[in-house]
Amino acid sequence: MNKTTFYIESLGCKVNQYESDGIAAQLEAHGFSRAGKGSPADICIVNTCAVTSRAGMQSRQETRKLIREHPNATVIVTGCHAQTDPEQFKKISGVDLIVCHQDKPLIPAYLTRESPDKNLFKFRKPEYGKSACFVGFGESDRPVSGKMTRAYLKIQDGCNQFCTYCIIPYARGASVSMPFDQVVAHVASLNRQGFKEVILTGIHTGLYGLDLKPETSLTQLVQTLDENKPVDQIRISSIEPNEITDALINMARPGHILCDHFHIPLQAGDNDVLSRMKRPYSVEQFSDVIHSIHDTLPHAGIGLDVIMGFPGETEKAFENTYKLVAALPISYLHVFPFSPRQGTPAWHFTPKVASDTAKKRAALMRGLGEQKRSEFIKSNQGRVLKGLIQNQRDRRTGLLKAVTTNYLTILIENNGETYDNPNSLKGKIVNIKYEQCSSNCLVGSIVP
């Protein structure tokens, strides 16, 4: 194939980004050049997202935009939205190929052939319960590093939970896990490449290991990493509340490998709404988990996902969610108005919550999130935190910036003092004293 420059647009979650980086790495290994956004490209790949209606719409918009900007390019569409609703992309003139999750890893093989054969791909729906739609992990002999300061490692794919609002299990199929020894080896390999932090990610990361033989768990994996220390620190991208064990919390204490940062989906703080969502915990159980983390790790970063306007969410149910979040010792919120997804049970649920009402509730919840963030920042002022210096400086100030283990971004300003070759600090873990918040930026200095 005579087309050698490619561009990948990855929408949605970190798993999509990881998979896009994997495709890019294979293409680059075959001599292809990765184009930046807005640069000419012979091949455009869109890795779509379906988590909300808006994400699906953005995926289609991005596809049309790339076709307009690259009229002579080969355009390939893949990802969750392409998987669950391929007909939408068949309607878009200029799309050359729609690839299902299972065949996503075959895209480089297709593009690197002298005479590409579209018969390489057979679009398939996931056969839930038999195998995951996306390819298993056995073929992955080396980790995907990407271009970030912190490396992501996808250790799990698929989901068995089938929350009533979520389309993702229909897109990706049942849960599958990377073999245990392969995870450990990949983490060590990333460390040898210079990464000090590895983020373990997946579609439902807490299900890790339950499909393996012998069966294992995320907690056991982190314990092994903690004992062997193949890298300085690891972080879990997101984890369900009922999958956070006491042992996992303890491995985020000082001297251990796990960062003191937990991102946990709450979705609703009302038991009736949680039941309609088919979430596997109660408000009381969720509260106990958050307090267990806070009691052991008083300065841990704790983020929550919350959905506003789910069908049947009364004013009282919203108040229950608001009061619960207000009472919990958390550090930030991700708030989403409910997005009905055709093909899920919640698509048919009534009574519907008016769009304006859902947006108003979301705005109130975001305001609470800002309040929580401010309180968390204030509670860390004057503390010495462990932080990873990022490869990219802060665009506005030009200062070095660090991400702390408890998920604060702090700009480094050594009070007028100079240190030799500050660029040599990039990618290093240092101790930082957070001192002040200036112009909505957190500022601190490196200390011994």
Automatic annotation (TrEMBL):
Domain Radical SAM core, residue spans: 145-375
Keywords assigned: 4Fe-4S, Iron, Iron-sulfur, Metal-binding, S-adenosyl-L-methionine, Transferase
InterPro entries named in the record: Elp3/MiaA/NifB-like_rSAM, Methylthiotransferase, Methylthiotransferase_CS, Methylthiotransferase_N, Methylthiotransferase_N_sf, MiaB-like_bact, rSAM, rSAM_horseshoe
Domain named MTTase N-terminal: residues: 4-116
One annotated GO molecular function: tRNA (N(6)-L-threonylcarbamoyladenosine(37)-C(2))-methylthiotransferase activity
Source organism, top-level taxon: Bacteria
Cofactor(s) the record lists: [4Fe-4S] cluster
NCBIfam families: MiaB-like-C (TIGR01579), MiaB/RimO family radical SAM methylthiotransferase (TIGR00089)
PANTHER family, alphabetized: RADICAL SAM PROTEINS, THREONYLCARBAMOYLADENOSINE TRNA METHYLTHIOTRANSFERASE
Protein name (record): tRNA (N(6)-L-threonylcarbamoyladenosine(37)-C(2))-methylthiotransferase MtaB
Upper taxonomic lineage: Bacteria, Pseudomonadati, Thermodesulfobacteriota, Desulfobacteria, Desulfobacterales
Gene: mtaB
